[in-house]
Amino acid sequence: MQPSHAGYLLWAILAGVIAGIVCGALFGPAMLAVEWIGTLFLNALKMTIIPLIIAAVVSGVASLGDVRKLGRVGAYTVLYYASTTAVAVALGLLVVNVIQPGNGVAELSREIPSGVAGREPTGFADIVLSMVSPNLVAAAAETQLLPIIVFALLFAAALTTTGTRGETVIAFFDGLNETMMKIVVWIMYLAPLGIFALVAAQLGKAGGGAAFLAQIGAVGKYVATVLIGLSLHVVFLFVVLRVIGRRGFDYLRTLLRALLTAFGTASSSATLPLTMECAREAGADERAVRFVLPLGATINMDGTALYEAAAVMFIAQAYGFDMGLTEQLVIFLTATLAAIGAAGIPQAGLVTMILVLSAVKLPLEGIGLLLAVDWFLDRFRTAVNVWGDAVGTAVIARLFTHHPPPRD
Ligand code: ASP
Description:
This protein has 17 helices and no strands. It has a single domain (3-400), classed as Sodium:dicarboxylate symporter (Proton glutamate symport protein). Helix 2 (35-62) runs antiparallel to helix 7 (167-188) and helix 11 (249-265) runs antiparallel to helix 12. It has 408 residues and is mostly helical. Aspartic acid binds at residues 266-268, 301, 304, 342, 344-349, 378, 381-382, 385.
């Protein structure tokens, strides 16, 4: 996308978010009438995900040229993502211990919310199992990205061993990637209107501004705690971006379109095509964009990890359970796992929280306390998830591809 277009579009998307908040707050449920426009935008984004990811990962990995290089870059990417997720959980635990938002919450919920009731906690084995699908077409149909990425990785690794005979295949996936990115740029022009509709309709569903403020007010301290934790993590990631990735505000500015889309859609998977386009525009190394970013969108969820830890501690405080060091260590480990296992779709974190709650024997009914404000916090944590992936891309690009990034 041309820089001047990108600049206008950023302002238009910002205006879309603000107009969505104002209209949703003022007109409430009447704004449900525009929901279809948001759904159209979301569907258009989702339409590109599967072909884009397959083409990007295959062409990105094949361009590394050597399976051993893939192993090294892959291992460092996973290590980097795991470390930043751990920092996020630690920050979540820190803020919730300092602010203690759950103390004094009078209304305790007595029922397990319907979306959560009857769900089994996701364990380590489930996460490993979810990496390989027996039916790729079914996985694609359900937008399960992890098995698709694993297959694309295997395919690309094999392709690098086929010599000249594989060259046509690599060229095909390269071309497919370029074509899909072109479509993504076109869809991006829909973003201001789409995000306006998504935000307005969601506020409309919450009953408009006054009803929403009343819901927030009930657990205001908790909402503030999560937002403070997420802000601290954004700053931490920015420092990592600056010090290790050697990038700065320019990178952040270019990524803002993707971050606002994450806020509007509450889905890091649906945002992935835009994140890739923005990172590319920001001059991140192509190979990192095609490999590190899709992997991050599926396994790296810093915002969700921080949120899971803070939410579970909040529930413990509200119900009057004392969480000692051992319990908090269990929360630390399971929240990390729950974030890795969460899909990049709206409110996925709420469901994988069962794992954390069960591990420290807290009542699942506690999720009921968070339900009213979860969709709101989901938008912020999704934006942080996307920011985490984008920073990871800049860092890995810098460390392992030996390409100096453009100066900010
Ligand atoms: N909505 C988040 C995402 O798509 C996941 C979650 O925390 O619920 O990244």
